[in-house]
Design a protein that fits this description.
The protein is of the alpha+beta class. It has 5 helices and 15 strands. Strands 1, 2, 4 and 5 form a 4-stranded antiparallel beta sheet that branches. It is globular, with a radius of gyration of 17 Å.
Length: 267
């Protein structure tokens, strides 16, 4: 069942989204070769708690960490590890869900570690653009297929592939609500979008095949051919004419208190 959000609920999610955005801005300050994905996880968890928020992924259906840290050929749900050390040219996708005063927001952002190869930079650029092409279709009266088709058509025109096994979703006081939001599909098909639906759009794009394989832990999904993957995600509200993005990092900046906390954080 789809739950339309009240204006009060949307503003609660916007406040959660602000903390989520600032968490990603803080992560940008520390991403560099030589740091481990576990260090990124612990830093982000500490920062969220500093802001009075809860890392909502931790413990969700048994997931043991605050972040999903998906490195290179990991599509999603990557486990942070002490021995996953970032190196020049890596792509790290960091998926984060924040709970603040009972309201959730969800955003994945991908980070270039140092300078990327031309192939990896193309992957990142296409994935990010595909996210916004999907968001352009997320307005009242359109259909879910319009979102998926816009993403799939563009990604495939660039010689890349869209993952089929994982989708966007509704979100609110629960992390995963109806509807599911595929990143592929047929224009004009699927459920019609209604004002004040809150959904995530989160295309996962691969250099090679879209097919994946699960690790034995039944969480970590990797590309079947071992080629790299990338993901970007926003939480947004369906509106008339143009979606309202609740996790837009450009709306925020780190203040002096945040920067001092980052400076004094001990790795």
């Amino acid at each position: 069942m789809i739950v339309l959000k009240t204006n009060e609920e949307i503003e609660g999610m916007r406040k959660s989204g602000e903390i989520l955005c600032k968490t990603h801005l803080a992560i940008k300050e520390i991403i560099r070769p030589g740091i481990s994905t576990m260090q990124v996880n612990d830093f982000a968890e500490a920062y969220m708690k500093f802001k009075g928020a809860v890392p909502a992924q931790k413990g969700y259906e048994g997931f043991p960490y605050a972040l999903c840290t998906s490195l290179n050929d990991v599509i999603c749900h990557g486990f942070p590890k002490e021995d996953d050390i970032l190196k020049e040219g890596d792509i790290l996708s960091v998926d984060n869900v924040v709970e603040y005063n009972g309201y959730l927001s969800d955003s994945c952002w991908s980070y270039a570690v140092g300078e990327l190869s031309e192939e990896n930079q193309h992957l990142m650029d296409v994935t990010l653009k595909s996210l916004y092409l999907g968001i352009e279709q997320a307005y009242e009266g359109n259909r879910l297929g319009d979102i998926g088709n816009a993403i799939q058509t563009y990604v495939e025109s660039e010689g890349l592939s869209v993952v089929r096994d994982f989708v966007g979703h509704g979100i609110g006081k629960e992390m995963h609500e109806d509807p599911q939001v595929p990143h592929y599909g047929v224009k004009g098909r699927g459920r019609r979008l209604i004002e004040n639906m809150v959904i995530t759009i989160e295309p996962m794009v691969n250099i090679g095949t879209w097919k994946m394989r699960l690790e034995d832990n039944n969480w970590v999904a990797r590309t079947r051919d071992g080629k790299n993957s990338c993901q970007f995600e926003h939480t947004l509200v369906v509106k008339k004419g143009k979606a309202d993005i609740l996790t837009n990092q450009d709306d925020y900046k780190l203040d002096d208190e945040d920067l001092n906390w980052i400076k004094n954080y001990k790795f």
